[in-house]
Amino acid sequence: MKIGMGNDHVAVDMKNEIKAHLEAKGIEVVDFGTNSTARCDYPVYGEAVANAVAAGEVDLGILICGTGVGISLAANKVNGIRACVCSEPYTARLSRQHNNSNILAFGARVIGIELAKMIVDEWLDAEFQGGRHAERVAMLMDIEKHQRRDKA
Ligand code: RB5
What we know:
By secondary structure, this protein is of the alpha/beta class. The chain has helices spanning 12-24, 42-54, 69-75, 89-97, 113-125, 132-151, and strands at 2-7, 28-31, 60-65, 83-85, 103-107. It has a five-stranded parallel sheet with strand order 2-1-3-5-4, with helices on both faces. The mean pLDDT is 97. The site of D-ribose (RB5) has 8 residues, from α3.
């Protein structure tokens, strides 16, 4: 299992703690930065991790900014990405089981590190349930195709 991680300047410490938590479980982490606390722009890191997930270079992604919102919005602009902001474990689990989320996002200014670890663990333990959920996820992904057609 290989996970791509990305964050902005407000989430460097939390990224490093989650990275260590994942590595302790034997999970390989590809760090897309930032590793600086100098002010930066979250879309850069959201897009980088999303591209790696969409290309299959990593299996899943984890993104952290102040709220998780900006960086997940950036990721969701990349075709094939289903990034979900989760501030508690229940939503994290269901985002995998029902929505087949391939990127987990949360906010370093919203939750503490122990809750963040719990959310990550719950998300990684959960599996997509398929069935009726697969049809809905396919409908979600079809929206990308409709958009491309409209632009042509
Ligand atoms: C940075 O100040 C902040 O806007 C960013 O981390 C994030 O919360 C945006 O959604």
